[in-house]
Amino acid sequence: MGKIIEVIDLKKNFKTPLTRKIVPALKGLSFGIEEGSIVGFLGANGAGKTTTLKILLGLIKRDGGSFKILEKEEIGFLTERPYFYEYLSGFEFLEFCAKLFKKEPSKKKINDLIEEVGLTHAAHRPLRNYSKGMLQRIGLAQALLNEPKLLILDEPMSGLDPDGRAHMMDLIQKAHTNGATVFFSTHLISDIETFCTEVVIIHQGKLVIQSKVGELLSRYSKGFHLETRDGQNRYSEMTFTTEAELQNAIDLARKDKLYISKVQALRPNLQEVFIKMKNASDQT
Amino acid sequence: MKPVVTVAKNTFKEIIRDRILYALIFFAIFLVILSYFLGQLSFAEQERIVADMGLMAIHFGCCLLAIFLGSTLVWKEIEKQTVLTLLSKPLSRGEFLIGKFLGLSTVLTLMNVVLSFILYLLCFTFPFFTFSNFLISQTGVLMESMFLLAVSIFFGVFCRPLLATLFAISIWMLGHGMNDLHFFSQKSKNVVFKNFGNAFSTYFINLERFNFREAVIYKDAIPAAEITKSVTLWLCWLAVLIFFGQRIFSKRDFV
After folding, report:
1. Residue A136's Cα: distance from chain center in Å?
2. I need a surface site. Which of A5, A146, B58, B196 has the fewest CB within 10 A?
3. pLDDT digit string (tens) for A211-232?
């Protein structure tokens, strides 16, 4: 499978309103997204996540670098704060969005999507009466209208309660199962640990790392934990830094006829990895 | 073309729900009806006063609507970030802007037709009143309000609504002062002012070109050449304003 997004040396500067002082937002960002993956775009507030997504969608002009992405006809996008036309109902809003596509989605498709996001009961209610969670769901529905090959979501879980988050995750997973490549920005590490295959971490407008989530966690492994018991039920536990040391210890335990009760890889969570990498990036 | 029509329809729906529209419509209707009563206060030419005031009320209503709604039209989309969702779809910035313009133009047309119908009911029995002149006059009002709409959208693309409104009102006033500027600059002995006035009144839009109210009131004939010239000029100005508005809009970052 090829790359569905390719970003090379992307640069963007903003100017402060009065003094016109240049504030660099992206300082030569490069990364690529494989087709069929679910990729989390992780960074602290102000790291440049939203700026990158907006450049990819043509909402902000870049100052340097290049990128490749699909046509808009094949992309679905959900903004960070989904403000839509308050006077339209959920159904009218989706109908309006559908008419913007060359291949216009049918009314049946709109109704199916409304049902899928669980808003059938509110489909004909004005959007001004929707809760934050409902707006987020109707926002996702508009992003899925054209059955996109690429789904770009900007902080899709922010401001949602646990139920809302779980529902949103289900919907995103479903879109992925139906063939969409998902690229979403977040500053919530738990979201990425839960359902991403890959992560792109940026800090102060620069790429820190792009890696498979599992590989990244292994790379920052804290070692291995081994627990054994002997015939008299005496319990002992040891920690090793390398896999070879662990293997030796297991071999010895077997030789001594010890019962191995637990072997555990001591992996950091993504939060710890992120903080380590961010600090390392700050130092360089 | 389909996305433009879609945006235009949505803009129409949006404005139809706007309270400013109804405030201005009621204000204009009030003035039209008031003109009827004010006309009665005059010793002579009562009917001409009614017609003149009525035409002026419609002119003011349509132009103010174009300026006030036009200057907030794009700004609201940016401020509420609805533009992000729209422009991430297969819709170009130019199509978006033209759609917005057409949507509000439809509202202006509707308002013009409704108000003109009310005035027509008040005036159609007057001896000097001819339907053809009335139609041309109201088309002139519509053209002027659409021009002001294009001006306010143009400024609204890069200014805050208050500034856009002020700029549009300034152009409205300047546009109606072109005949006077031309007249006084020709009379002036100051060469600089004479040349400036001449150049400015030649190249800046003269909104008096769209004013056919006197033809309605005095039953004057309106030369076809005059109408053709006004329409051509109007089309050119609209094209220029929308083109440059779109150029500026396409360079904007939606942060």
Report:
1. 16
2. B196
3. 888 787 777 777 888 999 988 8
CB-based contact B88 A75, cutoff 8 Å: yes
Please give, rounded to a whole number of angstroms, the shortest distance from the CA of B85 to a CA of chain A: 7
pLDDT at B18: 79
Q: Is the minimum CB–CB distance between B80 and chain A shorter than 8 Å? A: yes
Which residues, 6+ apart, have CB-to-CB distance to A187 below 8 Å?
Answer: A42, A43, A44, A45, A49, A155
In tens, the pLDDT along A89-123 reads 999 999 999 999 988 888 899 999 999 888 899 89
CA distance A28 to A10: 5
Q: Which of A54, A72, A82 sits opposite B89 (nearest CB)?
A: A72
Share of chain A above pLDDT 90, in %: 43
Mean pLDDT over the full length of chain B: 88
Question: Does B84 contact chain A (CB < 8 Å)?
Answer: yes
Residues A21, A37: Cα–Cα separation, whole Å: 39
Find out whether A59 and A152 touch, Cβ atoms under 8 Å: no
d(CA B96, CA B86): 8
At a CB cut-off of 8 Å and minimum separation 6, what does B58 contact?
Answer: B28, B32, B112, B115, B116, B119, B138, B141
Gyration radius of chain B over CA positions: 20
The size of chain A, in residues, is 284
Q: With both helix axes pointing from N to C terminus, report the angle between B224-251 and B131-156 in degrees, rounded to the nearest 10.
A: 20
pLDDT above 70: residue A38 = yes
Tokens of A282: 């700050």
Look up the ipTM and state it: 0.81
**CB-CB neighbors (< 8 A) of A99 in chain B:** 2-3, 6
Beta bridge partners, A12, equal A26
**Interchain CB distance below 8 Å, B14 and A85:** yes
8 Å CB contact between B111 and B61:
yes
Query: Could B82 and A85 be called an inter-chain contact, meaning their C-beta atoms sit closer than 8 Å?
Result: yes
**pLDDT for residue B205:** 85
Does B132 reach chain A within 8 Å, measured CB to CB? no
Q: Which residues contact A185 (CB under 8 A, 6 or more apart)?
A: A40, A41, A42, A43, A49, A50, A52, A53, A153, A154, A155
The segments of chain B whose pLDDT lies below 70 read none
In the block, residue with structure tokens 């500034």? B163
Are the C-beta atoms of A58 and A82 separated by less than 8 Å?
no
Binding-face residues of B in 87-116 toward A, CB within 8 A: 87-91
Q: Is the pTM here over 0.95, yes or no? A: no
Give yes or no for a contact between A99 and B6, defined as CB atoms under 8 angstroms apart.
yes
